[in-house]
Amino acid sequence: MTDSYSAAGVNIAAATRAKDLMAAAVRATHGPAVLAGMGAFGGCFDAALALADMSAPVLVASSDGVGTKTLVAAAVGRYDTVGQDLVNHCVNDILVQGARPLFFLDYVASAKLDPEQVAAVVAGAATACQAVGCALLGGETAEMPDVYAAGAFDLAGTIVGVVDRAAMLPLPTIAAGDAVLSLPATGLHTNGYSLARRIVEAGEGYAARPAILGGQSLGEALLAIHRCYLDEVAALRQAVTVKGLAHITGGGIFDNLPRILPEGLGAEIQRGTWEIPPIFTYLVEQGQIAEHEAYHALNMGLGMLVVVAADAVESALAAVPVARHVGSISAESGVRLV
């Protein structure tokens, strides 16, 4: 039976080896709240222990992937970064509602399992989980030869976090005249890779080191790890009242910022008020991408937008010096570059 299954394209031994290779990294993320983790049919997490200090805890959950960034990782032959991307993306998504992470589950699938490759991906996820105090509670490693193309793999994950109901975001007090701050992106994060790959693969290729990147290769720039904003947001919330957060992912500023605004409000984002990472300049120039499309498909360096009262800007920037004042909330719906 084992030989027949292997002949059909599924190698159980490879899956077992992958789990053995990742075990130490996964277990390093476990604290006293983890009652059952890797190896169990279902992960068990002691919610009473984790939520003991909250008066009205609200669970916040999100699922996401890293899209075709996996194809860049495969082309470059580096797999430790995309696991970090996945966790950080999911942490940022629930952070927008004010939540802190509790536990994470990952899913890695491919046509043919490469144990070392899978272990590198999951170890990356574990590294990111440790950094934010989140347990990597479990996951799935799947080998599906008739679903995925040879050499390709898929990566997705689910995060569960918690916020006290009184601390949930966005606040209903967002109003015209409020300031919009930006926390910087490290690069494309996890969106826009189908466009970026088309430009790079039709041009110089991933190994090229254009002068604008200062010695970095295109592959390295595209694999820059999705930044996690947990610490910066915590510092901001200690210093000022944060009214809202918008994680700039697929859809860019035009689709993501309106998701947190009261009906009828919009925003103006002032060109030239933040530094655009060189990889975006390269892609825009090489791909001849129109400005509106660039800001719709890519984050253009605006990783997380933060809404605060206009009189809180100085205190916010003092608390988090990497933040930039990039715009304001307007009484006209829609987001505009000015």
From TrEMBL:
<dbReference type="Pfam" id="PF02769">
    <property type="entry name" value="AIRS_C"/>
</dbReference>
<keyword id="KW-0547">Nucleotide-binding</keyword>
<dbReference type="InterPro" id="IPR016188">
    <property type="entry name" value="PurM-like_N"/>
</dbReference>
<keyword id="KW-0658">Purine biosynthesis</keyword>
<dbReference type="GO" id="GO:0006189">
    <property type="term" value="P:'de novo' IMP biosynthetic process"/>
</dbReference>
<comment type="similarity">
    <text>Belongs to the AIR synthase family.</text>
</comment>
<dbReference type="GO" id="GO:0005524">
    <property type="term" value="F:ATP binding"/>
</dbReference>
<dbReference type="GO" id="GO:0004641">
    <property type="term" value="F:phosphoribosylformylglycinamidine cyclo-ligase activity"/>
</dbReference>
<protein>
    <recommendedName>
        <fullName>Phosphoribosylformylglycinamidine cyclo-ligase</fullName>
        <ecNumber>6.3.3.1</ecNumber>
    </recommendedName>
</protein>
<keyword id="KW-0067">ATP-binding</keyword>
<dbReference type="Pfam" id="PF00586">
    <property type="entry name" value="AIRS"/>
</dbReference>
<keyword id="KW-0436">Ligase</keyword>
<comment type="pathway">
    <text>Purine metabolism; IMP biosynthesis via de novo pathway; 5-amino-1-(5-phospho-D-ribosyl)imidazole from N(2)-formyl-N(1)-(5-phospho-D-ribosyl)glycinamide: step 2/2.</text>
</comment>
<feature type="domain" description="PurM-like C-terminal">
    <location>
        <begin position="176"/>
        <end position="337"/>
    </location>
</feature>
<dbReference type="GO" id="GO:0005829">
    <property type="term" value="C:cytosol"/>
</dbReference>
<dbReference type="GO" id="GO:0046084">
    <property type="term" value="P:adenine biosynthetic process"/>
</dbReference>
<dbReference type="InterPro" id="IPR004733">
    <property type="entry name" value="PurM_cligase"/>
</dbReference>
<dbReference type="InterPro" id="IPR036921">
    <property type="entry name" value="PurM-like_N_sf"/>
</dbReference>
<feature type="domain" description="PurM-like N-terminal">
    <location>
        <begin position="57"/>
        <end position="163"/>
    </location>
</feature>
<dbReference type="InterPro" id="IPR036676">
    <property type="entry name" value="PurM-like_C_sf"/>
</dbReference>
<keyword id="KW-0963">Cytoplasm</keyword>
<dbReference type="InterPro" id="IPR010918">
    <property type="entry name" value="PurM-like_C_dom"/>
</dbReference>
<dbReference type="GO" id="GO:0004637">
    <property type="term" value="F:phosphoribosylamine-glycine ligase activity"/>
</dbReference>
